[in-house]
């Protein structure tokens, strides 16, 4: 099969023929329709994930058609159209049994623990626990994006922060994850404020329904917080840091009203120093979001089915496997055009 593969961290990926994956007893092999290009794929390629073995095929957001099933699979069959969370749970550990497969101690992640979806075929494990049926009518790009950025944002806002209609949400960082959070916040009936250093990213956030945008480029933390106070004088109810920097997390935390909730989605390159005095003095909650287990997808899928959430509206580029090496290199060097890119593998 064709796959985008790299033999060394930071070495330029290449599209080449590689052996097809084999199906595990409880797993499936999926023929990929479309897969997302995510900054996490870049981090893996650059060597920031110590679970990756070389040579490697990245890719973790996907939709496709099941081509082979293991003997132990009971809920799915060849020909089913499916997606999966990027964190695939084992289904039997204490975390999974408590309904928290997103932090499964035995988790597998396509594109990280094993070869991923930048390929014609991808193996997925523990299929009955992890697969999510996808309607034939749903856009393939929209379905692929549900596996990582939308699921992580949805869990963070709905299951962790319990964002309610009428509350105020600030999203700091308007890349793919941040824009997903903006769209979900709007769909839930919240008033959304968006912060970014890039005018194009803020324009995208406005198109996604953000009520107010704050350009933080060249502005001090104090100035950014003052702009947010102008928009929400009592403070915001929920904040999201979708980037993963000390400064962006601090802005989110310090924008909160007393008893507010901060959701950390962006991954930090190193352990940060955060304004814990404000956390204590205002009794703030700091919450993480690390994907979402498959059994919690019905609420997210319902928003999509009702048309209240349209992940496909974030897609600005559709490329093929042949374009992926250039796209990865550009994203690593912050030379990508911004917005969300998906890879139509069958293209």
From TrEMBL:
Residue ranges constituting the Enoyl reductase (ER) domain according to the UniProt record: 8-342
Return the PROSITE patterns for the record. Answer: ADH_ZINC (PS00059)
UniProt similarity note: Belongs to the zinc-containing alcohol dehydrogenase family.
* Family matches, as Pfam families: ADH_N, ADH_zinc_N
Query: What cofactor is this protein dependent on?
Result: Zn(2+)
**One function term, GO molecular function aspect:** oxidoreductase activity
The UniProt keyword set, sorted, is: Metal-binding, Oxidoreductase, Zinc
Q: Which domain of life is it from?
A: Bacteria
The species this protein was found in = Arthrobacter bussei
Keyword set includes Metal-binding = yes
What is the protein's name according to its record? Zinc-binding dehydrogenase
On whether Metal-binding is a keyword of this UniProt record, the answer is: yes
């Amino acid at each position: 099969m064709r796959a985008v593969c790299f033999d060394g961290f930071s070495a330029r990926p290449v599209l080449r023929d590689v052996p097809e994956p084999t199906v595990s007893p409880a797993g499936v092999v999926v023929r990929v329709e479309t897969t997302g290009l995510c900054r996490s794929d870049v981090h893996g390629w650059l060597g920031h994930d110590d679970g990756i073995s070389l040579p490697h095929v990245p890719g973790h957001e996907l939709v496709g058609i099941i081509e082979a099933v293991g003997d132990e699979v009971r809920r799915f069959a060849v020909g089913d159209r499916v997606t999966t969370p990027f964190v695939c749970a084992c289904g039997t550990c204490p975390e999974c049994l408590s309904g928290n497969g997103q932090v499964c101690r035995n988790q597998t992640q396509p594109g990280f623990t094993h070869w991923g979806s930048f390929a014609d075929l991808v193996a997925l494990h523990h299929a009955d626990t992890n697969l999510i049926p996808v309607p034939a009518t749903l856009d393939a790009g929209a379905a692929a994006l549900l596996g990582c950025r939308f699921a992580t944002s949805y869990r963070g806002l709905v299951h962790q922060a319990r964002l309610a209609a009428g509350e105020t949400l600030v999203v700091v960082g308007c890349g793919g994850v941040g824009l997903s959070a903006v769209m979900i916040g709007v769909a839930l009936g919240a008033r959304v404020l968006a912060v970014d250093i890039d005018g194009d990213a803020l324009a995208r956030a406005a198109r996604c329904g953000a009520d107010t945008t704050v350009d933080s480029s060249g502005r001090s933390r104090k100035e950014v917080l003052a702009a947010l106070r102008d928009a929400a004088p009592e403070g915001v109810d929920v904040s999201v840091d979708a980037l993963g920097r000390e400064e962006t997390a601090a802005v989110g935390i310090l924008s909160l009203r007393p008893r507010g909730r901060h959701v950390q989605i962006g991954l930090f390159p190193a352990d940060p120093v955060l304004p814990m005095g404000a956390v204590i003095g205002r009794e703030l909650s700091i919450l993480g979001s690390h994907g979402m287990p498959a059994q919690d997808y019905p609420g997210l899928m319902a928003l999509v089915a009702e048309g209240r959430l349209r992940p496909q509206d974030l897609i600005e580029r559709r490329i093929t496997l042949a374009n992926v090496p250039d796209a990865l290199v550009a994203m690593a060097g912050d030379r990508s055009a911004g917005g969300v890119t998906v890879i139509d593998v069958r293209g």
